Amino acid sequence: CNLLEKSFPGKTYSSSNQQNLYQKFIASYFSVNERLTPSCVVSPANTKDVAEIVGLLSKNSCQFAVKSGGHGIVTGSSNIAEGVTIDLRDMRSVSLNQENKTATVQPGAKWVEVYNYLSPLGYAIPGGRAGLVGVGGLTSG
Question: What is the pTM of this model?
Answer without folding.
Answer: 0.91
